[in-house]
Design goal:
This protein has 375 residues and is an alpha/beta fold. The chain folds into two domains: 7-273, TIM Barrel (Alpha-Beta Barrel); 280-373, no CATH class. The protein has 15 helices and 16 strands. The strands form four sheets. The protein has an eight-stranded parallel beta sheet with strand order 4-14-13-12-11-10-6-5. Strands 1-2-3 form a three-stranded antiparallel beta sheet. Strands 7-8-9 form a three-stranded antiparallel beta sheet. Helix 7 packs parallel to helix 8, helix 10 (257-265) runs parallel beside helix 14 (332-358) and helix 13 (320-328) crosses helix 14 (332-358). The protein is globular and about 60 Å long. The N and C termini lie far apart (46 Å).
Length: 375
């Protein structure tokens, strides 16, 4: 593995752009399409790493911005990188922090140099340059690095989107230079990010500029930022068609069945989102028969499993009535069990999707899934 050719396509659906493949990364293979649980602070909330291994996850996401601020990348380097620090044996993808900077707009200022921002923790002032983002992720010993980028909100004027695109392309070039200069023997891979907001011409320009750098993988940024689902689908389809077949494709920040199925249908290989665990903590379970809101009174005496079609440890051992009791009483166990189930559900869904692609029946599977999920 030379650090640039990390992806092999195994099967194609035939009637859609859906595909399966394998990523070869420093901490093992990752089968794609792959959903990546989000462990912002080097932990997936309420889910021990042993459970993630049990469920079969091969890669999780951690966040550069948050880990830089606390506990600091120097400390994590001392521990042997994220793997030594956490004990997780699988792969880590680290977000550059660009989206966190975007979402904390009142605390930051973007210049050609980088981002000047105030910590949301203690108000301390910091500068994050593209080179800094690479250096931090090198200290974290990430298996996949993300470049620092500039994300714009849905509805941003074209001129603002163009400036963000130019800066993202320049930062990608600077990130690549730093990555090549400092990587040494470590084989973590740097991914570029396509921006351009929801303007097709800007998306095309951004893709051309990012792809010219010939990085190991490419992400579509600036999606799922508040736009209607149909706008997401249209922009996703257009943008995915701009990307080469040979590189792994990643759509950042999606994690519900509808968004995952749309992404896979357009040839996307990787996706992540905090939503499965966040919604779990707030009382919502994904099931193959649709979303289940556990606080509803109808479950007070429902002694059946959360999802009869799910084989996870929660559905095998706990009833809806008991889970409702835990949630209504604010018990920590609710968050643990619900988060486990939602992540297992998505892992199971993606496994079924992979099987359908390999058997040439993705379209039929998607139709059958929606018939039951949407009722």
């Amino acid at each position: 593995m030379d650090g640039t050719e990390i992806f092999t396509i195994h099967a194609r659906d035939g009637r859609t752009k859906a595909r399966t493949g394998v990523l070869e990364l420093p901490h093992g293979r990752v089968r794609t399409p792959a959903f990546m649980p989000v462990g912002t602070n080097a932990t997936v909330k309420a889910v021990p790493k042993e459970y993630l291994e049990e469920m079969g996850f091969e890669i999780i996401l951690a966040n550069t911005y948050h880990l830089y601020l606390r506990p600091g990348h120097g400390l994590i380097r001392e521990a042997g990188g994220l793997h030594g620090f956490t004990g997780w044996k699988g792969n880590f993808l680290t977000d550059s922090g660009g989206f966190q900077v975007f979402s904390l707009a009142q605390f930051r200022k973007i210049t050609q140099e980088g981002v000047r921002f105030q910590s949301h923790i203690d108000g301390s002032r910091h500068v994050l340059r593209p080179e800094d983002a690479v250096d931090i992720q090198t200290a974290l010993a990430s298996d996949i690095f993300m470049q620092l980028d500039v994300c714009t909100p849905y509805g941003a004027p074209e001129r603002e989107a163009l400036e963000a695109l130019k800066m993202t392309s320049d930062w990608a070039r600077r990130s690549k230079e730093r990555w090549l200069a400092t990587r040494g023997d470590f084989r973590g891979s740097l991914f570029g990010i396509v921006q351009g907001n929801f303007y097709p011409a800007l998306r095309a320009r951004s893709a051309e500029e990012i792809l010219a750098l010939d990085l190991p993988g490419v992400a579509l940024g600036g999606l799922s930022v508040g736009e209607p689902f149909e706008v997401f689908e249209e922009t996703l389809a257009y943008s995915a068609d701009l990307l080469p077949e040979s590189k792994p494709r990643y759509v950042m920040g999606i994690g519900t069945p509808e968004y995952i199925l749309a992404a896979v249908e357009n040839g996307i290989d990787m996706f992540d989102c905090v939503l499965p665990t966040r919604t779990a903590r707030n009382g919502l379970l994904f099931t193959f028969s649709g979303k289940l809101v556990i606080k509803n009174a109808q479950y007070e005496r429902d002694f059946g499993p959360p999802d009869e079609e799910c084989g996870c440890r929660v559905c095998r051992q706990y009833s809806r009535a008991y889970l409702r009791h835990l949630y209504k009483n604010g018990e920590i166990l609710w968050s643990i069990l619900a988060s486990y189930h939602n992540l297992y559900f998505l892992r199971d869904l993606v496994s079924r999707i992979r099987y359908s692609i390999e058997s040439g029946s993705f379209g039929e599977y998607k139709k059958a899934f929606y018939a039951k999920y949407l009722g």
